[in-house]
Amino acid sequence: MARTDRGSRVIAAPPASVYGALLDRDSLEVWLPPDGMSGRVEHWDPRPGGGFRMVLTYLDASDNPGKASDATDIVDVEFADLVPPERVVQRAVFEADDPSFAGTMTMTWQLTPTDGGTEVAVTATDVPPGIDQADHEAGIASSLANLALYVEATN
Q1: SS3 of 10, please?
Q2: In a domain, 95, yes or no
Q3: Which has more pLDDT, 85 or 62?
Q4: Is residue 40 part of a domain?
Q5: One Pfam family this chain carries (predicted)?
Q6: Rounded to two decimals, what is the model's pTM?
Q7: Which alpha helices (DSSP H) does the chain contain, by range?
């Protein structure tokens, strides 16, 4: 059965600033990797139908084996829909030999103006069963916290 994971956070910045961070290669490398990981974008094409390839490296791989290698996760992401400054929809495919990580996960980043700035709601659908739900939702929350720190510092 298809699984959906979620996370949300209010960021003290206007939607245009948050949207900009979602579509800027350098900022994405800073805020997207969750705690305990670093990230590097290998390919970048920020348009509908374009996308990026990100290599995520565990800072301590001893308790976190990667999907692509002992210390890394590699994900190919397609920009399925871009609606400035309201929504970014991504289709993500992990590089892995384990079939429990196979399939295309859709990540929708919905940006809604609020009195405090922008509510960012992330919905991940068709999450591969090999991805632990609690770990994934903690990773989403961590990336949202990183996004808030990044955007709020640059505003």
Answers
A1: strand
A2: yes
A3: 85
A4: no
A5: AHSA1
A6: 0.93
A7: 15-22, 25-31, 133-154
Q: Where are the beta strands (DSSP E) in the chain?
A: 4-11, 37-45, 51-58, 72-83, 87-94, 105-114, 117-125
pLDDT of 49 over the 70 cut: yes
Residue 67 has pLDDT above 90, yes or no: no
CATH number of domain containing 107: 3.30.530.20
Beta bridge partners of 79: 90
Which of these, 114, 120, 123, 145, lies nearest to 8 by C-alpha position?
120
When divided into structural domains, the chain yields a total of 1
Joined tokens for residue 147: 């996004």
Task: Enumerate the β-bridge partners of residue 53.
Answer: 43, 76
Tell me: pLDDT of 68 over 60: no
Q: Distances in Å between the alpha carbon of 21 and those of 11, 44, 60, 69, 143?
A: 12, 14, 27, 28, 12
Q: Quick check: is 62 in a domain?
A: no
pLDDT score, position 61: 65
Q: How far apart are CA 93 and CA 53, in angstroms?
A: 10
Are 146 and 21 within 8 A, CB to CB?
A: no
Q: Is pLDDT of 60 > 90?
A: no
**Could you tell me if residue 25 is inside a domain?**
yes
What range does the domain containing 112 cover?
4-35+82-154
